[in-house]
Protein backbone atom coordinates (compact mmCIF):
# COMPACT_ATOMS: atom_id res chain seq x y z
CA UNK A 1 0.00 0.00 0.00
CA UNK A 2 1.27 3.42 -0.82
CA UNK A 3 -0.50 6.40 0.67
CA UNK A 4 -0.12 9.67 -1.14
CA UNK A 5 0.60 11.71 1.96
CA UNK A 6 3.36 9.51 3.26
CA UNK A 7 7.03 9.80 2.64
CA UNK A 8 7.74 8.62 -0.83
CA UNK A 9 10.18 10.12 -3.23
CA UNK A 10 8.62 8.02 -5.96
CA UNK A 11 5.62 10.30 -6.07
CA UNK A 12 5.83 13.94 -6.88
CA UNK A 13 3.03 16.24 -5.91
CA UNK A 14 2.21 19.32 -7.89
CA UNK A 15 0.74 21.87 -5.55
CA UNK A 16 -1.66 24.45 -6.69
CA UNK A 17 -4.52 26.62 -5.71
CA UNK A 18 -7.50 27.64 -7.75
CA UNK A 19 -5.97 28.89 -11.02
CA UNK A 20 -9.35 30.06 -12.29
CA UNK A 21 -9.66 32.65 -9.55
CA UNK A 22 -6.86 34.93 -10.70
CA UNK A 23 -6.38 37.66 -13.22
CA UNK A 24 -4.50 36.58 -16.31
CA UNK A 25 -1.96 39.35 -15.71
CA UNK A 26 -0.61 37.76 -12.53
CA UNK A 27 2.66 35.86 -12.83
CA UNK A 28 2.25 32.18 -12.18
CA UNK A 29 4.37 29.75 -10.26
CA UNK A 30 4.33 25.99 -10.60
CA UNK A 31 5.88 24.04 -7.75
CA UNK A 32 6.69 20.37 -8.12
CA UNK A 33 7.40 18.62 -4.85
CA UNK A 34 9.60 15.56 -4.37
CA UNK A 35 10.37 13.64 -1.21
CA UNK A 36 8.91 13.89 2.24
CA UNK A 37 6.00 15.77 3.80
CA UNK A 38 8.39 18.44 5.01
CA UNK A 39 8.90 19.38 1.39
CA UNK A 40 5.13 19.45 0.84
CA UNK A 41 4.85 21.88 3.75
CA UNK A 42 7.78 23.97 2.47
CA UNK A 43 6.28 24.13 -1.03
CA UNK A 44 3.12 25.64 0.45
CA UNK A 45 5.14 28.16 2.46
CA UNK A 46 7.16 29.09 -0.65
CA UNK A 47 3.96 29.65 -2.59
CA UNK A 48 2.70 31.82 0.29
CA UNK A 49 5.93 33.84 0.31
CA UNK A 50 5.71 34.44 -3.45
CA UNK A 51 2.05 35.41 -3.18
CA UNK A 52 3.23 38.54 -1.37
CA UNK A 53 5.15 39.39 -4.56
CA UNK A 54 2.05 38.92 -6.70
CA UNK A 55 2.61 35.35 -7.84
CA UNK A 56 -0.26 32.91 -7.99
CA UNK A 57 0.10 29.16 -8.00
CA UNK A 58 -0.83 27.07 -11.01
CA UNK A 59 -0.98 23.32 -11.48
CA UNK A 60 -0.47 23.64 -15.23
CA UNK A 61 3.23 23.80 -15.97
CA UNK A 62 2.61 25.26 -19.45
CA UNK A 63 1.01 28.34 -17.84
CA UNK A 64 3.86 28.98 -15.44
CA UNK A 65 6.27 31.91 -15.53
CA UNK A 66 8.31 30.28 -12.78
CA UNK A 67 8.87 26.58 -12.25
CA UNK A 68 10.28 25.48 -8.91
CA UNK A 69 11.43 21.93 -8.28
CA UNK A 70 11.42 21.28 -4.54
CA UNK A 71 13.79 18.36 -4.42
CA UNK A 72 14.86 15.38 -2.32
CA UNK A 73 18.38 14.03 -1.86
CA UNK A 74 17.68 11.07 0.41
CA UNK A 75 18.53 8.40 -2.17
CA UNK A 76 20.35 8.62 -5.48
CA UNK A 77 17.21 7.82 -7.46
CA UNK A 78 15.38 10.77 -5.91
CA UNK A 79 18.21 13.19 -6.75
CA UNK A 80 18.66 11.96 -10.32
CA UNK A 81 14.96 12.41 -11.06
CA UNK A 82 15.49 16.14 -10.74
CA UNK A 83 17.99 16.23 -13.58
CA UNK A 84 15.74 14.36 -15.98
CA UNK A 85 12.91 16.76 -15.13
CA UNK A 86 15.26 19.71 -15.66
CA UNK A 87 16.01 18.38 -19.14
CA UNK A 88 12.33 18.53 -20.04
CA UNK A 89 11.85 22.00 -18.60
CA UNK A 90 14.94 23.28 -20.40
CA UNK A 91 13.30 22.42 -23.73
CA UNK A 92 10.20 24.30 -22.64
CA UNK A 93 12.31 27.33 -21.70
CA UNK A 94 13.96 27.22 -25.13
CA UNK A 95 10.61 27.22 -26.92
CA UNK A 96 9.43 30.07 -24.71
CA UNK A 97 12.53 32.12 -25.45
CA UNK A 98 11.88 31.70 -29.19
CA UNK A 99 8.36 33.02 -28.61
CA UNK A 100 9.76 35.95 -26.57
CA UNK A 101 8.36 34.80 -23.24
CA UNK A 102 10.30 34.26 -20.04
CA UNK A 103 10.47 31.06 -18.01
CA UNK A 104 12.44 31.11 -14.77
CA UNK A 105 13.63 27.77 -13.39
CA UNK A 106 14.46 27.30 -9.73
CA UNK A 107 15.72 24.31 -7.78
CA UNK A 108 14.94 24.30 -4.08
CA UNK A 109 15.04 21.69 -1.32
CA UNK A 110 17.66 19.16 -0.39
CA UNK A 111 19.36 18.72 -3.79
CA UNK A 112 19.74 22.51 -3.89
CA UNK A 113 21.39 22.43 -0.48
CA UNK A 114 23.64 19.46 -1.25
CA UNK A 115 24.77 20.42 -4.74
CA UNK A 116 24.46 24.22 -4.88
CA UNK A 117 26.19 25.78 -7.87
CA UNK A 118 26.94 22.35 -9.33
CA UNK A 119 23.29 22.22 -10.40
CA UNK A 120 23.74 25.26 -12.64
CA UNK A 121 26.93 23.73 -14.05
CA UNK A 122 25.09 20.51 -14.93
CA UNK A 123 21.87 22.24 -15.96
CA UNK A 124 22.70 25.78 -17.17
CA UNK A 125 19.03 26.59 -17.81
CA UNK A 126 18.51 26.81 -14.05
CA UNK A 127 18.25 30.41 -12.86
CA UNK A 128 18.16 30.03 -9.11
CA UNK A 129 19.12 27.49 -6.47
CA UNK A 130 17.71 28.03 -2.98
CA UNK A 131 18.30 25.73 0.01
CA UNK A 132 15.64 24.78 2.58
CA UNK A 133 16.89 27.17 5.27
CA UNK A 134 16.44 30.31 3.18
CA UNK A 135 12.96 30.12 1.64
CA UNK A 136 12.07 33.43 3.22
CA UNK A 137 14.63 34.94 0.85
CA UNK A 138 13.06 33.28 -2.19
CA UNK A 139 11.11 36.35 -3.43
CA UNK A 140 14.29 38.42 -3.42
CA UNK A 141 16.29 35.63 -5.07
CA UNK A 142 13.67 35.42 -7.80
CA UNK A 143 13.78 39.18 -8.35
CA UNK A 144 17.56 39.02 -8.75
CA UNK A 145 17.31 36.07 -11.10
CA UNK A 146 14.74 37.91 -13.24
CA UNK A 147 17.24 40.75 -13.39
CA UNK A 148 19.55 38.36 -15.24
CA UNK A 149 21.93 36.98 -12.61
CA UNK A 150 22.18 33.36 -11.56
CA UNK A 151 21.37 33.10 -7.86
CA UNK A 152 22.62 30.46 -5.43
CA UNK A 153 21.36 30.77 -1.83
CA UNK A 154 22.47 27.82 0.27
CA UNK A 155 23.90 29.41 3.40
CA UNK A 156 22.30 28.35 6.60
CA UNK A 157 20.30 31.42 7.50
CA UNK A 158 21.28 33.11 10.73
CA UNK A 159 17.67 34.14 11.16
CA UNK A 160 14.96 31.51 11.57
CA UNK A 161 13.11 31.02 8.29
CA UNK A 162 9.83 30.52 10.16
CA UNK A 163 10.06 33.99 11.68
CA UNK A 164 9.97 35.39 8.16
CA UNK A 165 7.76 33.10 6.14
CA UNK A 166 4.14 34.27 6.03
CA UNK A 167 1.53 32.34 7.99
CA UNK A 168 -0.78 30.44 5.65
CA UNK A 169 -3.69 32.56 4.45
CA UNK A 170 -7.20 31.47 5.35
CA UNK A 171 -8.29 31.06 1.73
CA UNK A 172 -5.22 28.95 0.97
CA UNK A 173 -5.78 26.73 4.01
CA UNK A 174 -9.39 26.18 2.97
CA UNK A 175 -8.39 25.31 -0.58
CA UNK A 176 -5.86 22.78 0.75
CA UNK A 177 -8.46 20.74 2.60
CA UNK A 178 -9.29 19.52 6.09
CA UNK A 179 -5.90 18.00 6.86
CA UNK A 180 -2.71 19.99 7.15
CA UNK A 181 0.98 19.64 7.86
CA UNK A 182 2.72 21.82 10.40
CA UNK A 183 6.50 21.76 10.62
CA UNK A 184 7.63 22.06 14.25
CA UNK A 185 11.24 20.98 13.94
CA UNK A 186 13.87 20.78 11.27
CA UNK A 187 17.24 19.16 10.92
CA UNK A 188 18.95 16.37 12.78
CA UNK A 189 21.94 15.94 15.10
CA UNK A 190 21.90 12.15 15.14
CA UNK A 191 24.21 11.47 12.20
CA UNK A 192 23.08 8.00 11.21
CA UNK A 193 25.89 6.92 8.91
CA UNK A 194 23.59 6.37 5.89
CA UNK A 195 21.79 9.70 6.01
CA UNK A 196 22.25 13.04 4.25
CA UNK A 197 19.71 14.92 6.34
CA UNK A 198 22.17 16.37 8.89
CA UNK A 199 24.03 17.84 5.90
CA UNK A 200 21.06 19.01 3.81
CA UNK A 201 18.79 20.23 6.59
CA UNK A 202 21.44 21.11 9.14
CA UNK A 203 21.34 20.71 12.88
CA UNK A 204 18.21 20.36 14.94
CA UNK A 205 16.07 23.49 15.30
CA UNK A 206 12.75 23.58 17.15
CA UNK A 207 10.09 26.20 16.43
CA UNK A 208 8.87 28.08 19.50
CA UNK A 209 5.65 26.97 21.23
CA UNK A 210 3.77 30.24 20.59
CA UNK A 211 4.46 30.09 16.84
CA UNK A 212 3.25 26.50 16.60
CA UNK A 213 0.12 27.10 18.66
CA UNK A 214 -0.72 30.21 16.62
CA UNK A 215 -0.37 28.33 13.35
CA UNK A 216 -2.43 25.38 14.61
CA UNK A 217 -5.18 27.75 15.78
CA UNK A 218 -5.18 29.44 12.43
CA UNK A 219 -5.51 26.11 10.67
CA UNK A 220 -8.36 25.04 12.96
CA UNK A 221 -10.21 28.32 12.45
CA UNK A 222 -10.05 27.74 8.70
CA UNK A 223 -11.69 24.33 9.09
CA UNK A 224 -8.72 21.98 9.39
CA UNK A 225 -9.65 18.90 11.46
CA UNK A 226 -6.38 17.01 11.43
CA UNK A 227 -2.85 18.35 11.86
CA UNK A 228 0.30 16.33 11.34
CA UNK A 229 3.31 17.78 13.10
CA UNK A 230 6.42 17.40 11.01
CA UNK A 231 10.11 17.20 11.69
CA UNK A 232 13.01 15.09 10.45
CA UNK A 233 13.37 14.16 14.08
CA UNK A 234 10.01 15.40 15.29
CA UNK A 235 10.11 13.85 18.75
CA UNK A 236 13.38 15.65 19.47
CA UNK A 237 11.30 18.84 19.40
CA UNK A 238 11.67 20.86 22.59
CA UNK A 239 10.59 24.28 23.69
CA UNK A 240 9.69 26.49 26.59
CA UNK A 241 6.08 26.67 27.68
CA UNK A 242 4.29 29.89 28.63
CA UNK A 243 5.04 29.11 32.31
CA UNK A 244 8.76 28.98 31.57
CA UNK A 245 9.05 25.19 31.93
CA UNK A 246 10.77 22.91 29.42
CA UNK A 247 8.36 21.23 27.03
CA UNK A 248 8.85 18.12 24.93
CA UNK A 249 6.66 16.92 22.07
CA UNK A 250 4.30 15.11 24.46
CA UNK A 251 3.53 18.32 26.34
CA UNK A 252 3.05 20.17 23.05
CA UNK A 253 0.53 17.56 21.91
CA UNK A 254 -1.44 17.99 25.15
CA UNK A 255 -1.57 21.74 24.44
CA UNK A 256 -2.60 21.36 20.78
CA UNK A 257 -5.34 18.90 21.76
CA UNK A 258 -7.06 21.79 23.58
CA UNK A 259 -7.60 23.74 20.35
CA UNK A 260 -11.31 23.69 19.43
CA UNK A 261 -12.00 21.97 16.12
CA UNK A 262 -8.75 20.00 15.94
CA UNK A 263 -10.03 16.47 16.22
CA UNK A 264 -6.97 14.58 15.10
CA UNK A 265 -3.26 14.95 15.74
CA UNK A 266 -0.36 13.02 14.26
CA UNK A 267 3.40 13.48 14.16
CA UNK A 268 6.19 12.13 12.00
CA UNK A 269 9.08 11.09 11.79
CA UNK A 270 10.30 9.87 15.13
CA UNK A 271 13.52 8.42 16.43
CA UNK A 272 13.30 5.59 19.00
CA UNK A 273 15.74 7.37 21.29
CA UNK A 274 13.46 10.37 21.66
CA UNK A 275 10.28 8.54 22.70
CA UNK A 276 10.03 9.85 26.26
CA UNK A 277 7.49 9.07 29.00
CA UNK A 278 5.38 12.15 28.39
CA UNK A 279 5.04 11.36 24.69
CA UNK A 280 3.96 7.83 25.55
CA UNK A 281 1.52 9.31 28.08
CA UNK A 282 0.10 11.49 25.31
CA UNK A 283 -0.66 8.30 23.37
CA UNK A 284 -2.36 6.91 26.48
CA UNK A 285 -4.42 10.00 27.38
CA UNK A 286 -5.21 11.93 24.22
CA UNK A 287 -8.13 10.74 22.16
CA UNK A 288 -7.10 13.20 19.45
CA UNK A 289 -3.67 11.62 19.07
CA UNK A 290 -4.21 8.99 16.41
CA UNK A 291 -3.20 5.43 17.32
CA UNK A 292 -0.57 5.20 14.62
CA UNK A 293 3.14 5.62 15.05
CA UNK A 294 5.84 5.79 12.42
CA UNK A 295 8.94 4.70 14.30
CA UNK A 296 11.76 3.66 11.96
CA UNK A 297 14.24 1.07 13.18
CA UNK A 298 16.11 0.53 9.86
CA UNK A 299 17.53 -2.89 10.81
CA UNK A 300 17.00 -5.71 13.28
CA UNK A 301 20.69 -6.55 13.60
CA UNK A 302 22.62 -5.03 16.49
CA UNK A 303 25.83 -5.15 14.49
CA UNK A 304 24.27 -3.15 11.66
CA UNK A 305 22.47 -0.79 14.05
CA UNK A 306 25.87 -0.02 15.55
CA UNK A 307 27.46 0.56 12.14
CA UNK A 308 24.52 2.84 11.33
CA UNK A 309 25.23 4.81 14.53
CA UNK A 310 21.65 4.35 15.68
CA UNK A 311 22.75 4.15 19.32
CA UNK A 312 20.13 1.56 20.29
CA UNK A 313 19.78 -2.21 19.96
CA UNK A 314 16.96 -4.25 18.42
CA UNK A 315 15.93 -5.23 21.93
CA UNK A 316 15.75 -1.57 23.07
CA UNK A 317 13.35 -0.98 20.18
CA UNK A 318 11.19 -4.00 20.99
CA UNK A 319 10.95 -3.03 24.66
CA UNK A 320 10.00 0.50 23.65
CA UNK A 321 7.19 -0.84 21.47
CA UNK A 322 5.96 -2.94 24.38
CA UNK A 323 5.75 0.21 26.52
CA UNK A 324 3.90 2.11 23.80
CA UNK A 325 1.47 -0.78 23.25
CA UNK A 326 0.83 -1.01 26.97
CA UNK A 327 -0.11 2.66 26.95
CA UNK A 328 -2.19 2.46 23.78
CA UNK A 329 -3.17 -1.11 22.89
CA UNK A 330 -4.81 -0.22 19.55
CA UNK A 331 -1.72 1.58 18.22
CA UNK A 332 -0.59 0.52 14.76
CA UNK A 333 3.12 0.55 14.02
CA UNK A 334 4.81 1.82 10.91
CA UNK A 335 8.51 1.81 10.11
CA UNK A 336 11.35 2.33 7.66
CA UNK A 337 13.93 -0.30 6.75
CA UNK A 338 17.16 -0.24 4.83
CA UNK A 339 18.48 -3.45 3.30
CA UNK A 340 22.05 -3.93 2.13
CA UNK A 341 23.74 -1.44 4.41
CA UNK A 342 27.54 -1.95 4.13
CA UNK A 343 28.58 -5.18 5.86
CA UNK A 344 25.05 -6.61 6.08
CA UNK A 345 25.21 -10.42 5.95
CA UNK A 346 22.39 -12.91 5.44
CA UNK A 347 22.37 -13.41 9.21
CA UNK A 348 21.97 -9.64 9.78
CA UNK A 349 19.13 -9.56 7.29
CA UNK A 350 17.48 -12.54 8.99
CA UNK A 351 17.55 -10.54 12.23
CA UNK A 352 15.61 -7.79 10.46
CA UNK A 353 13.05 -10.32 9.25
CA UNK A 354 12.74 -11.67 12.78
CA UNK A 355 12.18 -8.20 14.19
CA UNK A 356 9.50 -7.48 11.60
CA UNK A 357 7.75 -10.77 12.39
CA UNK A 358 7.85 -9.90 16.06
CA UNK A 359 6.48 -6.35 15.73
CA UNK A 360 3.84 -6.84 13.04
CA UNK A 361 3.66 -3.60 11.06
CA UNK A 362 0.46 -2.03 9.79
CA UNK A 363 2.51 -0.17 7.22
CA UNK A 364 6.19 0.14 6.37
CA UNK A 365 8.67 1.51 3.87
CA UNK A 366 11.75 -0.37 2.83
CA UNK A 367 14.65 0.75 0.71
CA UNK A 368 17.86 -0.57 -0.77
CA UNK A 369 20.82 1.19 0.77
CA UNK A 370 21.95 4.03 -1.47
CA UNK A 371 25.43 5.45 -0.75
CA UNK A 372 25.14 9.21 -0.34
CA UNK A 373 28.12 11.49 -1.02
CA UNK A 374 29.64 12.90 2.16
CA UNK A 375 28.12 10.34 4.54
CA UNK A 376 30.30 7.81 6.42
CA UNK A 377 28.35 4.87 4.95
CA UNK A 378 29.42 5.80 1.42
CA UNK A 379 33.09 5.46 2.46
CA UNK A 380 32.67 1.99 3.97
CA UNK A 381 34.62 -0.66 2.08
CA UNK A 382 32.20 -3.56 2.56
CA UNK A 383 29.40 -2.40 0.24
CA UNK A 384 26.76 -5.04 -0.48
CA UNK A 385 26.22 -6.25 -4.04
CA UNK A 386 23.19 -5.00 -5.88
CA UNK A 387 21.84 -8.51 -6.48
CA UNK A 388 21.83 -9.29 -2.75
CA UNK A 389 20.10 -5.94 -2.04
CA UNK A 390 17.45 -6.71 -4.65
CA UNK A 391 16.79 -10.16 -3.27
CA UNK A 392 16.55 -8.98 0.35
CA UNK A 393 14.31 -6.07 -0.55
CA UNK A 394 11.93 -8.42 -2.34
CA UNK A 395 11.76 -10.77 0.62
CA UNK A 396 11.26 -7.97 3.13
CA UNK A 397 8.63 -6.23 1.04
CA UNK A 398 6.68 -9.45 0.58
CA UNK A 399 6.61 -9.91 4.35
CA UNK A 400 5.62 -6.29 5.01
CA UNK A 401 2.86 -6.39 2.38
CA UNK A 402 1.56 -9.52 4.01
CA UNK A 403 1.46 -7.86 7.42
CA UNK A 404 -0.25 -4.83 5.96
CA UNK A 405 -2.94 -6.97 4.35
CA UNK A 406 -3.41 -8.88 7.61
CA UNK A 407 -3.86 -5.62 9.48
CA UNK A 408 -6.41 -4.30 6.98
CA UNK A 409 -8.34 -7.58 6.82
CA UNK A 410 -8.48 -7.61 10.61
CA UNK A 411 -10.54 -4.42 10.47
CA UNK A 412 -13.34 -5.93 8.36
CA UNK A 413 -16.58 -6.00 10.32
CA UNK A 414 -15.42 -3.46 12.90
CA UNK A 415 -16.77 0.05 13.43
CA UNK A 416 -14.21 2.83 13.19
CA UNK A 417 -14.13 6.61 12.82
CA UNK A 418 -13.28 8.10 9.45
CA UNK A 419 -12.49 11.74 8.71
CA UNK A 420 -14.08 12.63 5.38
CA UNK A 421 -11.41 14.34 3.28
CA UNK A 422 -12.33 14.58 -0.38
CA UNK A 423 -14.62 13.46 -3.20
CA UNK A 424 -13.90 10.00 -4.51
CA UNK A 425 -12.54 9.18 -7.95
CA UNK A 426 -15.83 7.59 -8.88
CA UNK A 427 -19.09 9.49 -8.97
CA UNK A 428 -21.18 9.08 -5.83
CA UNK A 429 -18.16 8.25 -3.65
CA UNK A 430 -16.44 10.19 -0.95
CA UNK A 431 -13.08 9.36 0.65
CA UNK A 432 -12.29 9.42 4.33
CA UNK A 433 -9.24 8.46 6.33
CA UNK A 434 -9.05 5.82 9.04
CA UNK A 435 -7.15 6.46 12.30
CA UNK A 436 -4.41 4.29 10.75
CA UNK A 437 -4.11 6.42 7.59
CA UNK A 438 -5.95 4.08 5.24
CA UNK A 439 -8.29 5.73 2.71
CA UNK A 440 -11.90 4.76 3.50
CA UNK A 441 -14.24 4.69 0.50
CA UNK A 442 -17.82 5.69 1.34
CA UNK A 443 -21.07 6.60 -0.36
CA UNK A 444 -21.16 10.38 -0.68
CA UNK A 445 -24.31 10.48 1.43
CA UNK A 446 -22.23 9.32 4.42
CA UNK A 447 -21.32 12.90 5.25
CA UNK A 448 -19.60 16.03 4.10
CA UNK A 449 -15.92 16.92 3.92
CA UNK A 450 -14.59 17.59 7.43
CA UNK A 451 -17.10 15.31 9.16
CA UNK A 452 -15.89 12.49 11.37
CA UNK A 453 -18.27 9.59 10.94
CA UNK A 454 -18.69 6.13 12.43
CA UNK A 455 -18.39 3.54 9.70
CA UNK A 456 -18.43 -0.22 9.43
CA UNK A 457 -15.63 -1.73 7.35
CA UNK A 458 -17.16 -4.04 4.75
CA UNK A 459 -14.11 -5.17 2.77
CA UNK A 460 -10.57 -4.20 1.86
CA UNK A 461 -9.53 -2.82 -1.51
CA UNK A 462 -6.08 -2.64 -3.07
CA UNK A 463 -4.83 -0.06 -0.59
CA UNK A 464 -8.06 1.17 0.90
CA UNK A 465 -11.06 0.13 2.97
CA UNK A 466 -14.65 0.05 1.74
CA UNK A 467 -17.12 1.06 4.42
CA UNK A 468 -20.73 1.96 5.17
CA UNK A 469 -22.15 4.42 7.63
CA UNK A 470 -22.60 2.53 10.90
N1 LIG B 1 19.70 4.74 1.45
C1 LIG B 1 18.48 4.14 1.53
N2 LIG B 1 17.51 4.56 2.33
C2 LIG B 1 17.75 5.65 3.09
N3 LIG B 1 16.99 6.30 3.98
C3 LIG B 1 17.69 7.34 4.45
N4 LIG B 1 18.91 7.39 3.90
C4 LIG B 1 18.97 6.33 3.04
C5 LIG B 1 19.97 5.84 2.18
N5 LIG B 1 21.18 6.41 2.09
C6 LIG B 1 15.65 5.86 4.36
C7 LIG B 1 15.56 5.54 5.85
C8 LIG B 1 14.81 6.72 6.38
C9 LIG B 1 13.92 7.06 5.22
C10 LIG B 1 13.38 8.44 5.25
O1 LIG B 1 14.74 6.89 4.10
O2 LIG B 1 14.85 4.35 6.02
O3 LIG B 1 14.09 6.42 7.55
FE1 LIG C 1 14.35 13.97 1.14
FE2 LIG C 1 15.26 14.08 3.60
FE3 LIG C 1 15.17 16.26 2.18
FE4 LIG C 1 12.90 15.15 3.03
S1 LIG C 1 14.52 16.05 4.26
S2 LIG C 1 13.29 15.93 1.01
S3 LIG C 1 13.43 12.97 2.87
S4 LIG C 1 16.46 14.49 1.79
TrEMBL record:
It holds the Pfam family UPF0004. It comes from the Bacteria. Its EC number is 2.8.4.3. One of its GO terms (molecular function) is metal ion binding. It catalyses: 2-thio-N(6)-dimethylallyladenosine(37) in tRNA + S-adenosyl-L-methionine = 2-methylsulfanyl-N(6)-dimethylallyladenosine(37) in tRNA + S-adenosyl-L-homocysteine + H(+); N(6)-dimethylallyladenosine(37) in tRNA + (sulfur carrier)-SH + AH2 + S-adenosyl-L-methionine = 2-thio-N(6)-dimethylallyladenosine(37) in tRNA + (sulfur carrier)-H + 5'-deoxyadenosine + L-methionine + A + H(+); N(6)-dimethylallyladenosine(37) in tRNA + (sulfur carrier)-SH + AH2 + 2 S-adenosyl-L-methionine = 2-methylsulfanyl-N(6)-dimethylallyladenosine(37) in tRNA + (sulfur carrier)-H + 5'-deoxyadenosine + L-methionine + A + S-adenosyl-L-homocysteine + 2 H(+). Keywords: 4Fe-4S, Cytoplasm, Iron, Iron-sulfur, Metal-binding, S-adenosyl-L-methionine, Transferase, tRNA processing. [4Fe-4S] cluster 2 binds at residues 188, 192, 195. Its cofactor is [4Fe-4S] cluster. [4Fe-4S] cluster 1 binds at residues 36, 72, 110. Residues 409-470 form the TRAM domain. Binds 2 [4Fe-4S] clusters. One cluster is coordinated with 3 cysteines and an exchangeable S-adenosyl-L-methionine. It is found in: Cytoplasm. Residues 174-408 form the Radical SAM core domain. One of its GO terms (cellular component) is cytosol. It is an enzyme of class 2 (transferase). Residues 27-147 form the MTTase N-terminal domain. Its main location: cytoplasm. HAMAP family: tRNA_metthiotr_MiaB. Catalyzes the methylthiolation of N6-(dimethylallyl)adenosine (i(6)A), leading to the formation of 2-methylthio-N6-(dimethylallyl)adenosine (ms(2)i(6)A) at position 37 in tRNAs that read codons beginning with uridine. PANTHER family: CDK5 REGULATORY SUBUNIT-ASSOCIATED PROTEIN 1, MITOCHONDRIAL TRNA METHYLTHIOTRANSFERASE CDK5RAP1. Monomer. Belongs to the methylthiotransferase family. MiaB subfamily. This is tRNA-2-methylthio-N(6)-dimethylallyladenosine synthase. It comes from Borborobacter arsenicus.
Amino acid sequence: MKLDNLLTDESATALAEDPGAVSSAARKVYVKTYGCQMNVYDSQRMTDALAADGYVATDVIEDADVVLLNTCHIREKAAEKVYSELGRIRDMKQERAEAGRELMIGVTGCVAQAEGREIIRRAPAVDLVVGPQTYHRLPEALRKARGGSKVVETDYALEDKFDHLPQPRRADVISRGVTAFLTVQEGCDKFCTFCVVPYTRGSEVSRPVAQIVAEAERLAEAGVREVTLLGQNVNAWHGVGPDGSEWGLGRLLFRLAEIPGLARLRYTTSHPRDMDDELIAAHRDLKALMPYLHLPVQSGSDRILKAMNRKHTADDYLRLIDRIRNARPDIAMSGDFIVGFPGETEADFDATVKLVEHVGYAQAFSFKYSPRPGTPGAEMKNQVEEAAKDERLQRLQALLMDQQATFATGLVGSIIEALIEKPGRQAGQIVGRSPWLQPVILDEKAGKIGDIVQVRIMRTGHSSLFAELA
